[in-house]
Amino acid sequence: MTTQKVDQWLPTGLAARTLGVSHDSLKRYADRDGFLIEGKHWRRGVHPNSPRLWNLPACIDALAYRGRFRQEGAA
Prior knowledge:
By secondary structure, the protein is α+β, with helices and mostly antiparallel strands. The protein is 37% helix and 11% strand.
C-alpha cells in the first residue's frame, strides 16, 4: 500500500504559523528567493485582493530541503 500526501491549502498567516516562519519570510521565499513556486507551493485567490493560499505539504518539503523548516521540539 502506498501513502500519498494530500494537498492542504492554507492562507498566508496560518501557513506561516504552521511552518514556523513569519508571513513576510514566506512571501519573500516566493517573490524574491523564488524557491516556492506559484502553482506548486502557492496559488493566488480568485480575486486580486484574495489572500495567497499555500500548499502546506509542498512548502514543508521545500523548506526542509533548504534547511529552513523547524519542527516543534527540535533544537
